[in-house]
Structures are given as C-alpha cells and as structure tokens.
Amino acid sequence: MEIRPWVIVEAPDRRGLRRVVVGGETVGSVWSLHQLRKLLDRLGCPADMDLEDPACVYWRGGDSGTWPDRARRRHATVVLMTAGMLASAILNTVIGWPDALGALTFAQRMSGALILLSGAVQAVAVIAVLNHWGRRQHRSSGAVVLLGVLIALATDGLLLFMWFEEKEYTPYLLVFVPLWCWSLWALWVLVRERAWQGIPRPKTFAAGVVVTALLSAVSLAYSTMYQPAAAPMHFVLKAEFGASRADGRKPLVHVPVKLYVKNAGGIPVYIINSDYTVYGRSAEYSEGEDLMEEWRRSLDKNLYEDAERYVGRLRFTAISSGRFYRPGDSLDVGQEHVMERVFQVPVGVEFDTVNVFLQITYMRKDRGKLDVTQFRRMHRSWDEREGMYYCRPEKCGEELYYHGRVRHNNNLVNVTRKPRYVTAIWSPREKPFYSISSYHFKGVIDRSKERRDIDRYGASTAYADTEVSVAELLGAAGG
Fold first, then answer.
1. Please, what are the domains in the chain?
2. Cα dist. 294→173, 281, 285, 307, 354 in Å?
3. Among 21, 326, 384, 454, which is most exposed with the fewest C-beta within 10 angstroms?
4. pLDDT score, position 38
C-alpha cells in the first residue's frame, strides 16, 4: 500500500499567502489553488491527487476556496514600489557621480560618495521589494525597503527645500517632486505593514535608520550651503615701466611695460576676464584755486579721485589696451604669469603722466567648474555669423564675447537651479565686463540673483596700477 505524504495548508496571512507543510517540513507558500498544485507536482505528488480528501490535504483557517490574496493590488504595489525605488536610485547616482569623481575639495567628494552610496542601497532595495511583496524568503527584506524609502525621503526633501530657495524651473523638478510624494506614500505603506518586523531588535533598527537618515540630510545640507571661504584669495599684481628709448627715425619714444601676476593664495582659479590699459593724463593747471572745487570737478568725470591742488579738468586718453591672460585658463596656486609690452609716446605729446592699469577677474575653482572648451571660444559682436552673439555695432560697438556653462561643485545645487553661465565682454574702448547668471543671451539679467551667483562662485576682480611722468620718460630717452 502506498503511503501518501500528509499535506497541511496553513491559514492565510495578512497578504493572503498560505504556507504549505509536507511531512512536517515547510516546503513553500502559495497564493492560489493553481500554485498549490504546481508545488505538489514538483514534489512528486500524483497529478490527480484529490485536494478535497482529508486523508491527503488538511486545510487550516479555510478550505480550498479560501484565497484572500488581492493580486491586482499586490502587483500594483510592487510595480509602484519598484519604479519609485529604481528612479530614486538613478537620481542619486546622477547627482552623486560628478561630485564623487570630479569635485575639487574632500568635503564635496565625500558628499558625492555619500549620495552614490545611498543610490547603491536603493538599488539593493529594488530587489528587496520583490522579495518583501513576494514569498519573503529573507526576513530582513522589509527593513531594507524601509531604509531605501527613508533615504529617498531625506534626499528628495532636501532637493525640494533647496529648490524653494530660488524657485527656478529645472527638468529635475519633474523627477524629485513626484519622488518625494512617492516616498511619503511608500513610508505610509511600510509603517502600516510594520516592515521592520522579522529582524532582531526592530526598535533599535528603526531608531538607527532614522538617525542615519537625519545625519545624511544634515551632512548634505551642510556641504551644499557651506562656502569654502576659509582659504582667502591673494594675488600679487604688478605693472612696471622699463627704460624708455627714443626712435631714431620717428619722433616717438618707445616705453616698455612689464605686467606680472601670481596666485599667492591657497585656491586655484579660472581667469574669466583680464585687461591692461595704458592712459595718458593731461590737465589744465591753475594758480592754486580752491582744492575741493578742483577735486569735485575731477570726480564729475569719474576718472580721478585724488585731491590735488593746481590740477583740474583732467583728461585721460587710452594709448594701448589688451588682454593680459587668456579667458578660461587656470591660474593655479603659486603659478606666475608675466607679459611685456611696448607702447609709443609722441615726443611732443601733451600728456603730463602715463598710467598703466591692470586687472584680472577670476572665479574660484573650489566653487564651480567652468566649461573651458566652450568659454575659450571667442565671439565677435559685429559678425552676423555669430548667431545669438551678434549685436548691431551702433548698439553694442565692437566687443569680444566669451560665454560658457558653469556648474557648482556640489551637484545638488545644479539640479535645483537653472543652468548658470559665465559671460565676459572685452573691448579696447570700454571697461571689461563679466557676469555669472542664467542669462544665455535671451531676456534680461536678474541683477539680484546675479549678485548671489557671483558670491556663490567666488568671483571677484584684482587690480594694480602705476604711474610715471612723461618728463621722466622723455628724459630717459634723451628727448
């Protein structure tokens, strides 16, 4: 006589899953009568086995028709959980990858690595979702899913908080706002199901997860809002006149000038604009008129701020002008740059002094990364082939434009803001100009946001100037 195994089908749990015991050992769990037959077939039971025969199968907590599984609801939950967790893992990877590999400072690299690690945990949680809403072969799968959801809630909440600071449209807004809503829903589902059950000391685990999530959020917020200004910027700029020489064929004096810059601070920088201009100063001399009156008249022309008796009606004429440093090039810590130029002064010139004015505009490399390939490309405002850079000469004159994308060294800022661009304008007739803003040669510049962006990226200008009398130049040249 054949001895049949004693099969026990336990009562359904909260999800409708019924455990199957054969010969005193648990062999699996099933959602339906069809799955039960497939399980018994794999165990070698006869295909025509009568599941209603008490001698074959013993049913607990309901008969063969008790299958309370809500398959559609369960499948929908699995799909939503998997999609949200996977999207959050991809978002964290996209945000953290550039910082972890390319940020200049250690703190920014750690911030990127932390976000990458969070994305890796969420990738594992994607697999845990399938197990937790499946047969739960691993008891800790619910806790892993809970950890992934808390990471998503903390990260997306931080992104949303940062977005509210500027309220600018960015395509990432269409990602992290829905993910933040998804994380709230997912957390509600997991808390309702007490997902932390099944692991040792669930309260300790839950408290540790919450503390970890809070510390991660605080760390990310700190690394985002902190501006690394501890290392001050310091440049050595010099402009020096050399020994002048008379031209043997023409009534000219050749005057050499030496321009020098050194990054004496602790942070490398991008040079986004530079200029040197040689001015000749002429004045109308008086017999000692009121000092303050002469000073006021000088200030009216916005050219001369010194108070000097006997000197009035100052006029400054540009003799020579040029760029001192290539836009977009770096000036690393301790690096020096020297340029020597020669300009000409006519022997009978009306100038009484000659001034050289040197300036560089820089951006700290620990605050942002400039697309130097794009920025170094020179655009001529008067050339119609330049497209969006073209500007009618009667409106803009003749200017050179340098324009390129800049990204913050913390990618959390980049995904919550519009793209930012560095714009530099140089002309021999006007003062050098620069801007860091969302302006992309369309619309107008928001000056209040521009000021914040300039501070955020640590952009500023350093100056140097020197002066020599024309009498000294002509005397040295034998004029």
1. 7-59 (no CATH), 71-225 (no CATH), 232-363+463-479 (2.60.40.10), 368-457 (no CATH)
2. 59, 16, 10, 8, 20
3. 384
4. 82
